[in-house]
Amino acid sequence: MVRWVASWLEDRKQRVCLDGYSSTWTDVLSGIPQGSVVGPLLFLFFINVLEDGSMSVILKFADDTKIFRKVTNTMDGLQLQQDLNRDCDWADKWQMGV
């Protein structure tokens, strides 16, 4: 099963078509294929690790993620920052940076 999913995700290409014109094909290096039955399930596996090790509350809905916690002292603020840094590292690792 893992080999099947891996082969489905490898060597993907995409192009843009508009008004009868098409761009050149380019490699897709990250992300989950859209418009497939398996895509949403893979996305859930992919995004679920955001909660691992977090001391803050994480809410996820579709492609929206919110992280928060009540900050009443310096340690709370530092913990929130640590969780935000961890999530930024995750985004960089998976090429999802802005």
Assign the structural class, choosing from mainly alpha, mainly beta, alpha/beta, alpha+beta, or little secondary structure. alpha+beta
Overall geometric form: elongated
Uncertain parts: none
Strand content: 15-25%
Can you tell me the number of structural domains?
1
Average pLDDT confidence is: 86
Give the helices and strands as they follow along the chain: HEEEEHEEH
Cα-based radius of gyration, to the nearest Å: 18 Å
Order of strands, widest sheet = 1-4
Which bin fits the share of residues in helices? 25-40%
Oligomer: single chain
Number of helices: 3
Question: For the report, how would you describe the main beta sheet?
Answer: 2 strands, antiparallel
* Overall number of strands: 6
Briefly say what this structure is.
This protein is an alpha+beta fold. The protein has one domain (28-98).
Which helices and strands occur, and which strands form pairs?
Elements lengths: L1 H8 L2 E3 L2 E2 L2 E2 L3 E3 L9 H11 L8 E5 L2 E5 L5 H20 L5
Antiparallel strand pairs: 1-4, 2-3, 5-6
